[in-house]
Write a structure and sequence with these properties.
25% strand; 15 helices; homodimer; Aminopeptidase; Peptidase_M28 (chains A, B); lysosome (chains A, B); 455 residues; metallodipeptidase activity (chains A, B); 2 domains; alpha/beta
Chain lengths: 455, 455
């Protein structure tokens, strides 16, 4: 973040009181939405039912399409308007049977998950070279040829550590390795491997790539440190098949005065093949959906349209995000604000927004209405993967910010289940999404369009 | 705990200063032991090496016997005295292939582990009845016939909740169920099933018994609550084979004046078949072993013998504990004190002892020497499974008490790995075991033999 100049600070202080006054006019509907959201566990129950009914909702699977059908029917039953789906072609990666077997210094099945997009292998057996950074791999490049490289990298931040998952196979192939393993990206595990996407580089061999549980990665490193020769056999039935059709879900409460102006709220409906995806991102989908359902229930029809968008294929392609941008290109200038919830629906703290200063001020003022539930913090720099493509065209975009303490414990694992979310937190996340989207759609002056020039 | 009477309190206050004065004479050797234990990560490294080298050390497996051989060699290399093993016949339960498949309302593989001692089944397929207590099963007994009963019981205390694991199969069989499932016994999980022993009753059919992950158990309960028909197929290749030989490990530092009087320190060397058993109980074994190694290294030969005993088969039979009692029956009256570490070697808090009041006072005085590492709390009522048989014959017995916050997260799971333990906590646990056993063996008056009559 750049330091705030004196001039910008003065502008900011001048703008704030006026915007705050504006927003305070909406205290009554805001309080109604908060009360309605926090009255019961409806949102948690809906999230749990979605997760339990369909299980993992991976792009290209019938389970995802059945979940989409069910949501569409439920939304219609809720009385949402203009409920429909929009076609998206999505990638189809199939995991197949897979295993990582420790052969030496002793025999054991390791806890592993192939990385999304990886090529398969009928079986590659080699000595393992454990490194703790790309820099160490560069230093030991001469030792890596013909080996399986394991990046045993302790979690710092997701942005930093995930590099080893996305780029590991490329960097390992560059030094002649036959496969790439990575310590699961997260701060804590219980022999829980985390999957996620890997990338390839067209100028280098595509080598198979998988994640090990944190525990197993640390064990292999200790074995190497004791001078033991570590050998592993990796088998992966992974295949990339032809693209298949999926859909984004769209539903609205139409604006009473300026229906063509749109506030988008949403999350992504797909999850990884192994993950029930309760927090990532059934909870985010339900937070957006319930926000609009509550407006409907309370008879709060805002000046502008609030549109729920549940994107498909966030996890391994972002095809839904791109398809939404393409299908709605003509109305992009009418997108007042886009709000994504994809950080889990733990205790909400507020929002963070990427937009111009006036847009930030407007949103900050709305945020103050969320003080009763402790979600009134509005920061800069947020957004979301699914709203990224329309933000790139100028739409102010922001993300729901929540307590992230445990998000990366469960991210992309089998343990991303409903019990990890507290019904009270989910309810308050709904309230935050509802108040923010309702007031942004209701207040007389629209939030200014446009994004600041990239520095 | 019973309220302290005025009389007892007066006696206690009178006794304390004298005992404390006695123990304070041993401050110098105690401080040396603490310094030596906390100087490096030797204990953690040894625990990790034991775990990494052999993996799970289940009774009846070659891995357990190889681990025993290795420990014996290492103990000899450390210069411990009278290092030997003592024969024990142990049960041999083999898990085999196993699965629990959800068939309805949707297909999914559940996260399961068969319970130790369970019979197998080539495949039993039935509707599931989810209950949350034995009382609910009794109320719904008529519904249970021919079904698979799932005890979905939230964790309260281990002692209370583990009843559903040990007695579930009996209670389910009593009402005509064909199999018994139990929510894994623990306060938190990441799709991590916990194994452990189940029991049968000779007058009832022996039905297969398994644990589900907490998440899966809760999901089945939600499905039932939604009125869905839950069907599961359980397959278990479990078999109980003939007993096989194993061994307890014994090693000593012989007493310089009264070698026939013995302070026992120990833990159990076996673990469940799926569990690396780092905290349960490689850490406890190493804490006892390192305690004696440090005395040797520092030239601290106490008045009495300190004997390390690493018991075999704690997890599914207690055969090692009983064999030790039987092999040493003649010298039981010479057992001054028995100390077990089997609660994980997390941050040590002190000890808890089951003994007469004078023995308690003596130990409480020694405990004060552990104030520098925060392990000076001495309570009543402790012991350990492996020292239970000799305590029943009058030996004062106690357990190392540690921060148990996460013990039952990992207990009997694949996630009981070295990384869960902090080297500094392991080092301080060694220090606590070393100071307590050294001073108990060194102080002029022996701790009085005998156990209070059971109230």
């Amino acid at each position: 973040m750049k330091p705030i100049t004196t001039l910008a600070l003065a502008a900011l202080l001048a703008a704030a009181p006026a915007a705050a006054q504006d927003a305070s006019r909406f205290r009554a509907p805001a309080d109604s939405l908060i009360r309605a959201a926090t009255r019961d566990s409806a949102a948690w129950n809906r999230m749990a039912e979605l997760v339990d009914r369909f299980g993992p909702r991976f792009s290209g699977t019938p389970e995802l399409e059945r979940a989409i059908d069910w949501i569409v029917e439920e939304m219609k039953r809720d009385g949402l308007e203009n409920v429909h789906t929009e076609p998206v072609m999505v990638p189809r990666w199939v995991r197949g049977q897979e295993s990582a077997t420790l052969l030496s210094p002793r025999a054991a099945e390791l806890h592993m998950l192939g990385l999304g997009g990886s090529v398969g292998t009928p079986g590659v057996e080699a000595e393992v070279l454990v490194v703790e950074s790309f820099a160490e791999l560069t230093r030991r490049a001469a030792e890596a040829r013909g080996k399986i490289v394991l990046f045993d990298v302790p979690f710092t931040t997701y942005g930093e550590t995930v590099q080893y998952r996305t780029r590991g196979a490329v960097e390992a192939a560059r030094v002649g390795a036959v496969a790439s393993l990575v310590r699961s990206v997260g701060p804590f595990g219980m022999q829980t491997p985390h999957t996620g996407s890997t990338r390839y580089n067209d100028s280098l061999p595509r080598i198979p790539a998988a994640a090990l549980s944190m525990e197993d990665a640390m064990m292999l490193r200790r074995m190497q440190a004791r001078g033991e020769r570590v050998r592993v056999r990796l088998r992966m039935g992974a295949q990339t098949l032809a693209d298949v059709p999926s859909r984004n879900i769209v539903a609205e409460i139409r604006g009473r005065e300026r229906p063509e102006e749109v506030v988008v709220v949403g999350g992504h409906i797909d999850s990884w093949d192994v993950s029930p995806g309760a927090m990532d991102d059934a909870g985010g989908c339900v937070a957006a959906w319930e926000a609009v359902r509550l407006m409907k229930t309370l008879g709060l029809r805002p000046r502008r349209t609030v549109r729920v968008v549940l994107w498909t294929n966030e996890e391994n392609g972002l095809r839904g995000a791109n398809a939404y941008r393409d299908a709605h290109r003509g109305e992009i200038p009418n997108h007042v604000l886009a709000i994504e919830s994809d950080a889990g629906v733990f205790a909400p703290r507020g929002f963070s927004i990427t937009a111009t200063d006036p847009a930030f001020e407007a949103v900050r003022a709305i945020g103050q209405l969320l003080a009763p539930i402790g979600a009134d913090s509005v920061g800069r720099g947020g957004g979301g993967a699914d709203i990224g493509p329309i933000m790139a065209l100028g739409v102010p975009g922001m993300g729901l910010e929540v307590d992230r303490t445990r998000y990366f414990w469960y991210h992309h694992t089998t343990a991303d289940t409903p019990d990890k979310l507290d019904p009270r937190d989910v309810a308050r996340s709904v309230a935050a999404m509802a108040v923010m989207s309702y007031v942004a759609a209701e207040m007389p002056d629209r939030i200014p369009f446009g994004q600041p020039a990239t520095p």
